[in-house]
Specification:
This protein is α/β, with parallel strands linked by helices. It has 2 domains: 142 residues, 2-keto-3-deoxy-galactonokinase, substrate binding domain (Nucleotidyltransferase, domain 5), CATH 3.30.420.300; 125 residues, 2-keto-3-deoxy-galactonokinase, C-terminal domain (Nucleotidyltransferase, domain 5, 2-Layer Sandwich). Helices cover 38% and strands 27% of the residues. The protein has a 6-stranded mixed sheet with strand order 3-2-1-4-8-7, sandwiched between helices. A 6-stranded mixed sheet has the order 6-13-12-11-14-15. A 3-stranded mixed sheet has the order 5-9-10, with no helix packed on it. It is globular and about 65 Å long.
């Protein structure tokens, strides 16, 4: 077995991303099905994806985060209660052997949110650990982190510890309304296909108007949502415009409601996909805040490295 090479895996509900590493060097990446799509045990689904790597390097160590440690994953890994020092995440990982190789699965986090409800996360804690490894200044002082996605996480970091966090179903609710409601299906069916430039204009204008609606003092999400449909019917807005308006409304409401809960005044650190980071950064600026961005996949990989023990 190579002592320099290992496999890092971010195994979520919808996707598995595997990375063959040598130290901090990325050699190759592969994709696989998420935990939610498996029809066989996790170990069996993993074997064919890493078989050629094992043929070359032997029984490689495997470090995983995300839903691999959930009740429906490979092996359930206990939540680490907050406050949690993620610089010590490796000490709380579940470790075992499979197919003659060491396996480590990161624990999730649990807390009581500022709304008084129980909260959990899996996968995001490893991204935060990676952010701490990549940006040493986050290890001291107070910082608000936002991890946009299907379930957006807002996490309060103090001196390297996650003190508490809050979940917003921003991405999931957007997808449900986009795919399962009538809101975005009211554009003229015979409308001319927009040119790339007009589609880009619709995207920008729709998102901006969604942010305006979210920022309105009188707005509530339930009462603002129907305008996604009515603006197509009466104002002639396009399908693309309606989708962007819905996105702006959802993200704007998320930011508008989260920032007062954390009494945020400084720069928010965004950890996620580049395009989604930019939308949240734009929204934060709209509400008078500043943001810096970190790539979510890079942070996840850096966090997984902290679990690896050569």
């Amino acid at each position: 077995m190579s002592r320099e090479h290992y496999i890092a895996g971010d195994w979520g509900t919808s996707r598995l991303r595997l990375t063959l590493c040598r130290g901090e060097q990325v050699l190759e990446t592969r994709q696989g099905p998420g935990i939610g799509a498996l029809r066989e045990p996790a170990a069996a689904a993993l074997r064919p994806l890493i078989a050629s790597w094992r043929d070359t390097y032997g029984a490689l160590p495997l470090v995983l985060c995300g839903m691999a440690g959930s009740r429906n994953g490979w092996r359930e890994t206990a939540y680490l209660p907050c406050p949690a020092d993620l610089r010590l995440l490796g000490e709380a990982a579940l470790r075992f052997e499979a197919d003659d190789a060491p396996v480590a699965i990161a624990p999730g986090l649990s807390c009581q949110s500022r709304l008084g409800a129980p909260e959990v996360m899996r996968g995001e804690e490893t991204q935060i650990a990676g952010a701490l490894a990549l940006r040493g200044e986050l290890g001291s002082g107070r910082h608000l982190l936002c991890l946009p996605g299907t379930h957006t996480k807002w996490a309060y970091l103090q001196d390297g510890q996650v003190r508490d966090f809050l979940t917003a179903l921003t991405g999931e609710l957007f997808a449900l309304l986009r795919d399962g409601s009538t809101l975005t299906r009211a554009a003229q069916p015979n409308a001319q296909r927009p040119t790339p430039s007009s589609a880009a204009d619709d995207d920008r204008d729709g998102f901006d108007k969604g942010l305006e609606a979210a920022a309105s003092a009188e707005a509530s999400l339930l009462h603002a949502l129907f305008a996604v449909r009515s603006r197509q019917l009466l104002d002639g807005r396009s399908h693309a415009w309606a989708l962007s308006y819905l996105s702006g409304l959802m993200i704007g409401t998320d930011v508008r409601d989260a920032m007062p809960l954390f009494d945020a005044k400084g720069k928010t650190v965004l950890i996620g996909d580049g395009a989604l980071n930019e939308r949240y950064a734009q929204t934060l600026r709209r509400f008078g805040f500043t943001a810096s961005c970190l790539d979510g996949e890079q942070c996840a990989l850096a966090g997984l490295r902290t679990l690896w023990r050569p």
